[in-house]
Amino acid sequence: xxxxxxxxxxxxxxxxxxxxxxxxxxxxxxxxxxxxxxxxxxxxxxxxxxxxxxxxxxxxxxxxxxxxxxxxxxxxxxxxxxxxxxxxxxxxxxxxxxxxxxxxxxxxxxxxxxxxxxxxxxxxxxxxxxxxxxxxxxxxxxxxxxxxxxxxxxxxxxxxxxxxxxxxxxxxxxxxxxxxxxxxxxxxxxxxxxxxxxxxxxxxxxxxxxxxxxxxxxxxxxxxxxxxxxxxxxxxxxxxxxxxxxxxxxxxxxxxxxxxxxxxxxxxxxxxxxxxxxxxxxxxxxxxxxxxxxxxxxxxxxxxxxxxxxxxxxxxxxxxxxxxxxxxxxxxxxxxxxxxxxxxxxxxxxxxxxxxxxxxxxxxxxxxxxxxxxxxxxxxxxxxxxxxxxxxxxxxxxxxxxxxxxxxxxxxxxxxxxxxx
Length: 421
Description:
Oligomer: single chain
Number of strands: 17
Mean pLDDT: 86
Largest sheet: 7 strands, mixed
Order of helices and strands: HHEEHEHEEHEEEEEEEHEEEHEHHHE
Low-confidence stretches: none
Helix content: 10-25%
Shape: elongated
């Protein structure tokens, strides 16, 4: 890592430290509660599960922007990931920090070389599946002038474009917010001004950045539906559209219906690693009048699970999911009976990912230890060096999304109320 700090002034590490500090003072945080940033060095750090201690704390960010700060010769990535996992377990709900790991991703200790899947893969699996966190992987090609440690071999390199890897581990919204902040920073090599040949990103996780809200629409007349407003003093329903339904006025042969159009691929970014098979579902809750006390109302208790919308009203074309409610669908869901119903429709994407265009660069930017050693011995100034740990990491992260039942992301939804008279 010393070679990255020696490459220039200002350098990539110094820029990243400054951006991290400024991020916690940005609009992503309330002015009354700015975030805090702490810097650690892990290199030779070993995690002890029986007596977990943090890696060495760096007093000032400027230290990590100077070559003299780096004297370790190992990249014990699994140990710092175990500490991050421990920290997330200890933090509790709502207090999880965003962890940024900066590494050259060299597989230069025997544990990493011989058991990368079990060590690094095992911790990432826990973080993504058990903790429901996302992993963002940003790679930038930057100048490097220093030693490269490959196992027991020390090789000299003075190259213009050695990859530097930034792992972002945290809540999906945290990871996206930090990446977006870097993206718009106008500071090389982390902003969108950097050419794709020198900056790439992939996001692994199972949460959408934001759910797109769709609105139901009445189509035609004679369906029994009307948008006649009515009062409903249940918290959370004030801004929802409300419709009245009169079964006796409905014509089952009419084309006039209540329609909702959802985008199964809403807000999906090109760097997200997920399948694009559209999926949609609808749920119905009924208002429990006996539990409804407007003076002391708990919205979680007044709605009871009632039904699931059947597939007959659903129509999908590409990433567009349309649900059409008419007399038949209302009867099938039992919503033709007198009562007040809360309806939620959700659309999203799923699909097992074996190859994905968002991670193609991870194979292209990868080198084995042997190939890296051979290239540097031939020329200490060779261009286009790769990262030995990148391909194994790619395989691990892709494998996590191959687990059935964990490959679905909700992307758009619609909520509305129907009162059957």
